[in-house]
# Entry
Amino acid sequence: MRYRVNSPQVITETIDGEAIMINLATGSYYSLDRVGGDVWSLLEASLPVDDIVAELGRSYEATEDDIRRGVEDLLHRLSGEELVVACDDAEPVRPVPPRSATAERAPFRVPKLEKFTDMQDLILLDPVHEVDSRGWPHLPNGQAGGK
Amino acid sequence: MANLDAAFRKASAEQQVENRSFRIGGHQVLLRFAGAGAIPSIVPAFAHLQAEPFDEPELVVDIWDSATTGAAPPARPDVDAEEPVGAFYFFEEPPARGVFQPGMQALSALDHSTDRAWYWVADPTALPYWERAAPIRQILHWWMATRGHQQVHSGAVGTPDGGVLLVGKGGSGKSTCSLASLVSELRYAGDDYTMVSLEPRPWVHSLFSSGKVDPENLWRVPHLVPAVSNAEHLAQEKAVVFVDQHFPDRPIDGFPLSAIVLPTITGGPRTRALPISRAAALTALAPSTVFQLHTAGSEALQYMARLVRRVPAFVLELGTDVSEIPDVILALLDELRVATP
# Structure
């Protein structure tokens, strides 16, 4: 099973290992802690879930089952928030930054996704409609002024 | 865009064309008005950036209205009567962009290939207070982005040596911090929308000299009361002040960016600054900017992330004594100056 970021509806940045995601369609935005940020960066590469679990196993101290459960729970939430969508196996996997297996792996914590909804009112009050090139801002007969 | 150009020329045929020049973000901007009708609704917000006429302005914005010129409105998209008054109708067909805002009957358009823009409004006296406080914001956002700048939803105060960007959603205290600083050594670059650039070093540029305060919070900043420009409308509007008119030595066109500061109302008595993560700073800055600008997206988010990576970030826990705020910001700037001389 593979997922990809639901772009262009979702825009995202990772900073100091933490990810921020903005859903332009719903007005919600989200943050992910470092473990979640690691999962997110692997999702951005459209890696299969099995490979995400394997990659995390090199960085974090936990059983594969615990990591898989954490990843799948997060994917379920991300999918429910329309931040990621399932993708076709034919879609290319993007290169993943190399991770060195460290002697001391960090303890694995369940990824923490925070959701913020304080911008949703803005979307409701100031909805944006895209207008195509037909009819506006050009006048049908090329005259200046009048509608 | 030829039709908008023709519409402006038609409106200005029987009107005196009034030119006003401004240096915004270091760029030469000419606002060209068909008649004087729209000037009182547009120019006060830029008064602190007024400049001598330029031989070859970099951006020319033609501005006209129908109420005072009698000109027929330009073509606009069909609008569903059920739409909220804040609806945006966005048009993008490179090199042209436009936005029609039916709630205030205003149209903004920019032709990137000619650095020409047009702003039409049905009746300038009917523009809402927030538009008079931050006029032609979309045009500036689009055009300045092509010059390496990013408009951000933030206040900004500082000194010529360095200052802070005050970020956060509406109601977080950006305006309180910005406007409280008017009675201090700090200079004022804005309370709601400012502009930043990254090279050669992070920099804040002032766009508007205006400030807005919820009427119920005016008592916290009593020095503003005599400066309120819309005192008769405070039952429906935020109090708007044009800083240059009442505090003429306070506005500043910009300064180096020393820190990003996230004000937070705590209810406690004292004000203090504490470091926060860059991710927290980006979370406070980026979503509100993206949604307030309406037409910003992935590139704007990347820009803001680059900015956040370049400067430290702090939460400013606001105490109940507002007069402490500028002192705490000044002390923070002093500390940062010592840390990075």
Observations:
- Chain B has two domains: 2-145, 149-339.
- Chain B has a mean pLDDT of 94.
